[in-house]
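Aim 2 progress update. The chain analyzed this quarter is reproduced below.
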Amino acid sequence: MTAPDLTTPASDPAAPARAVTGPACYLNRELSWLAFNRRVLEEAADETNPLLERLRFLAITSTNLDEFFEVRIAGLKRQIEASVGELSIDGMSARRQLEGIEQAVRKFTSDQYDTWNNKLQPALAQAGIRILSGAELSQDQKAWAEKYFDDFAVAVLTPLAIDPAHPFPQLLSKSLNLAIMLKPAGKRGAANRLAIVQIPRVLPRLVRLPSEAITKDYILQKELTRLYLEKLFPGHQVIDGYPFRVTRNADFDVTEDEAGDLLETIEAKLRRRRKAEAVRLEVTSRMPADIVEKLAGKLGLSRSDVYICNGPVNLGRLVELVDLEDRPDLKWPPYTAINPIPAAEPEEVFERLFTSDLLLHHPFESFEPVVEFLEAAVADPAVLAIKMTLYRTSGDSPVVRALMSAAEAGKQVTVLVELKARFDEENNIRWARALEEQGVHVVYGLVGLKTHCKVILVVRREDEGVRRYCHLGTGNYNPNTARLYTDLGLFTSNEEIGRDVSDLFNLLTGYAQPGSMRKLLVAPFSLHENIITKIRRETANARGGKRARIIAKMNALVDRGVIDALYEASCAGVRIELIVRGICCLRPGMPGLSENISVRSIVDRFLEHSRIFVFENGGEREVYLGSADWMPRNFFGRIEAVFPVLDAALRARIVDELLMTYLKDDVRARILQPDGSWARTAPLPGSEGLRAQTELLKIARTRSASAPAPIAKPRKHPARKNNRVAEFSSDN
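Predicted structure tokens:
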């Protein structure tokens, strides 16, 4: 692909930037996020996607919305309680934002259930997959369901009475519950009673039913339980059971004065999270108004916090069906990630990295080379130390196993485990303890700052002294999500980057003060300032008639300082192309402000997760990668490392191959409009169009087929002199 001409049209170099901003120049963060979730819902409704993948998209919208309430809505409610007067970037108070969010979420919830009831469920039935109600079961299925209930479910269900002797139970966040209306048997005129049955997570939410037909039949656990509630309440007539779910505040902060033992502090806060204040009540549309009112009152919620579900409460659990059904015809066609760096002997791995930098693009290219890099470090006797950050990882992680093996082999292994990775805290605590038991030195970063950077440092002794080999990435060291998220990883033995990474670990593990980095841009110390400086340099270049352009790909754009700098650059004539997956508070295409800015979002099979920042720099193009979005939390509340791509060929690949493909997508891209709406692109008449992720899969296969021999040896690696490892006195 050929990059288009980047020369800025002639303009008056002395002309001042015309960026005059106010609240109307920005989009609301929360409403922008809801717009992103709607783009995901559109994929669930899109009949060009495989049916079970559409169901997965629907489930994702539900789990996304859960997190939105747990964190963002909870935060706004706390602002109101604390009488915080701070306005959002677009000038809205917390109360006004909640009002706008409530209206948007009610419409969104209605559309979710319309998608399920009128699109997906009928299509599944037509494909031979039925979700049955209790009334739709055959006699044989009812008999089987009753036996299943008696033999399995009834043993783990606990009926909870609600009366003066039995206080309202402390329901766990996001647990599925049934509110049961009971009538005492044989007591004429006795008042109805209310009870609750919590359906524990050990029970599957979808139960496969026996079927003699060609269909596969399922019933929701709550429907099956409703059929046999009287078995839990002998002596009572069950009028009905009404599903409901409570969402609670899941956000927490750790302050300096309470973090004597960070591990214990996080564990305590996790226990409290499950029973924190409620922020949302979801109820079935069948639930009587008086029960809704009673539940809301017991939970301390108002009517505005109650959301009606015209179908299964918690659509997110329908994703179980995607895993249960072995229907390749209803899923994405399988693909095999290309491994562009085949495994080699440990010394050859480092020889390869000594000669050149290497770039991986997941999931189109395999994550396996990262694991092999660690395994080579374990096996190579010349490797002295391994240091690594872990933000999120998989359940059975080969990365963690490699680190444990390195410690067993007597190497110095240091791992920074971020305990505050939201919703992965328990996993990370478990991994931290397992690593410590194997002799790995585990640290937990800095109080008040999440360690979000993704970095591996391998220190190796060689003839010339110590050499540092690094892997820096945009995504987590998680082999599972590396098959689902688009991310980039860079291997390098560049001396300046290696020293920067060493300094970064000294900062994270000791008392080192942040100093000036040679190549890395590190938050919260220099990243924000450097990004704005680079944007302003493009502005000056445009005014001077030099080549000026910015291309940036990220998950979210929120920071006002960066947005204002982009507005000024646009006013100076800089061409700015943004690829923003989710939240975007910048308004593109506004006359006199952002006419030269375009924003697109791509929602497709893989979650777009890579962050790429390109500055044309008068023809001396700079390309940076990292895990930091342009948000205040990334700039000022996290340890982030944004790193340069120094190899010219790799820079060209990132811009001309990756970014140009995304910018040409006219199948799955949406374009942000000045009013905050998103317009879907469409191929020209007679054209199939270009779908970026599909095209990138093709490119990866083509590159693999034409790849040269895996190991180039332009010169002898210094560590292999006379086939023995040189003696070395480490200064590490």
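Residues 252 and 269 are 7 Å apart (CA to CA). Confidence is low (pLDDT under 50) at residues 1-17, 254-260, 708-732. These observations will guide the mutagenesis experiments scheduled for the next reporting period.
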